[in-house]
User: Fold these one by one.
Assistant:
Number 1:
Amino acid sequence: MKVLFIFAHPDKRSFNYSLLDAAVSHLKSNGHEVQVSDLYRMNWKGIVTEDDFLNHEKGTRLKVVESSTKAYQENQLTQDVVLEQEKLKWADMVIFQFPLWWFTMPAILKGWFDRVFTSGYAYNVGTHTDTRYGDRYGEGIMAGKKAFCIITAGGREEHFSERGINGDINDLIFPINHGMLFYPGFTVLPPVLIFRVDSRRETVYQQAERDVLQRMDDIETIKPINYRKQNFGDYAIPELRLKDGVENSTQTHFDIHIKQD
């Protein structure tokens, strides 16, 4: 399997970096091919500007969706973005690893999504019909590829539970799993969630490494999150609203967008 890590942490001495090294070594020892986009080491440009679109007339109004579509179609994206898109085409599995900062991913990683997932490449709403609304949410360029997140957090697991002060971790990362990974077509695997990384306890790291390496061993067989696909009958078109009664009686909030076995 071809595995691509998109990694975001500024310090090579970090808990995260140690996990990355362990995971990459383990995958390679098991015969997988691995590439790593280490965003901080790459000095990744984390904001969208007119300079991202080489065919944009400088100083004129920037409409990002239109400009990114045109730049992609005319091969006028910057080389750093093109290289990341090529890595995504190469990969069978993409792993996004990052610390949870202010209840989401670091800005540099969000900037990677903003710049790499251009219109025309990662998404294309396309022509609407009575039964379809473009190739997205389960269809699209990433269809057939898998992805998941490895996320570290300083707080305790109970702080991120349904009744915890921070809210349910699965609610917090729904916009990432569903809105950023499933949207362009990835089959999304459950995340690896690691808590209490700020405790400085060696036992926390040891357990985290065991969990990550176990996921690397299970990477080809683990059951994905069964998100409902947009164009397969569960959503009314063109309203894009889940049809009444599709979910079961125990499902609420974001959970209604996951099919239960």
Note: Strands lie at 2-7, 33-38, 93-99, 146-152, 187-188, 192-194, 235-236, 241-242.
Number 2:
Amino acid sequence: MKRKAKAMGATHSSGLASSQMSSAARLSASLSQGDLFSVPLEIMEEIFLNLPPQQVVCVCRLVCHQWGEVADSESLWRERCRREGYRLRDASRIPKDWRLFYFLCKKRRNLLKNPKGDQQMKNWQILENGGDNWKVEGVMVPHPNETVQKNFVTSYGMCKKSQLIDLAVEGYNPLFMDHFQPDIKVSDWCAPRWDCGSEYHICVELLNQRKKPVQTFAPETVYFEQWNDRQWTQMTHVFQNYGPGVRFIRFTHGGKDTQFWAGWYGVRITDSCVEISPAVDT
């Protein structure tokens, strides 16, 4: 527990300004040494629940042994999860570390920028721009996610695009990634036109500091036949137990039509996602 607390604390301590520490510091200063040990644990826990979580980890737990026990307690972080609405999808799968579960839930978000094409091709690196190039259009059939109104469309030549995610820049520092190795969940949605065959490719790589692959998800090419029902298909994968050293994630996808028709009759792609997720919530 002590080692985990140190690693999690390092995730937040670098950006903790003195002004952010003031409430915990004032609380400590207002109590005499005798008072520190006379406060009931349940009262101390309630106080900690009303402080920013970074202060609890980086400041409060260092004041004394009693405060450290409360700050490290399972009950504190389980209650914090309950109050902030971070619930288990499967009640039978209990987290091994409620504090880790809390912080992963709190930081959880899509690390890809512009995943639905709402900003045209912004934030994507074009690797291949075959045929009549990439294009962004409105969806042809409703997407399961009602907020998705646009998609990227490929042409008759191979079209591929990519994003490189720097985990440290996104707030997941090397100590945290190496110690906890949290699950990394990726997903992507693709669909064909009903009147044209197409193919779809995806490759997601976990990279080390030198940008060399540590682990790769690269399934076989998906082929859609001509005259299909043009339904959306989701590709998903969860990286687990990938070992230390992961510093970047490279997400690459694309495709083309198989009829070689001028225009944009190739596979349609949208709502791509890469997220650091709690293991019990995947």
Note: Confidence is low (pLDDT under 50) at residues 1-21.
Number 3:
Amino acid sequence: MLTRLIPSSQEPLPIIGLGTWQTFDASSKAAYPQLSQTLDVLHVAGGSVIDSSPMYGRSEEVIGDLTADLAARDSFFYATKVWTTGRQAGIQQMEASLRKMRRARLDLMQIHNLTDWKTHLDTLRDWKAAGKIRYIGLTHYTDSMHAELERILRKEPVDFVQFNYSILDRHAEKSLLPAAADRGVATLINRPFTEGNLLARVKGKALPAWANELGISSWPQFFLKFILSHPAVTCIIPGTRDPAHLADNLKAGEGELPDEKTRERMAAFVYSI
């Protein structure tokens, strides 16, 4: 697995991780064997980032249950979010996240969809100084909020910014990705398949023959390689509960990445379908 550096610390981070929205919100432990295998696939391939949120139902608790007895539990990069209003409510929610994920310290705490971000940012700085979290982040998932994310990261020191970006949704290239690079902020990319719309678009379609030159053997790898080829992208977090799907995704984090000319060729091919 290729890695990229977190600018604020120079810590290497594997470039593909795992999102847990909907996928890890297991209503019973009957789903645990499959989800445990998914985490094992992530670890064996060299991935580490697991991204969650209180918004994602039981996903934090499920992650805590599944990793509690793993020998590799401390090799994962645990990221979650605060998603409420008010300082005390935020503190209580983050303390609950620590308990649910069974961690004494979290790697990354993000302000989910910028909810009450000014209040929570002060708290996150206190928590970082106290060693309860290692990194501070901001998130959103729509193009319409990219300008606000950029405005904040240009004004406030943060370690991470998470947002949407895909081969057919390139709005982040206009200003947000360059701003993150300029400010030394690591990026986590959500919605890399545009909520599944991309996969539906290419269903039954053959990959171009030249994709093999980049070691691409599936459409998910095609879409992820495109995103990873942008130098300001630090890590992508596609969500899945299926270990086979994750194994396929993770292959995009190996080998050669497209150059600028190839990126545009990839985008043009998808637009033509």
Note: Residues 3-272 form a domain with the TIM Barrel fold (CATH 3.20.20.100).
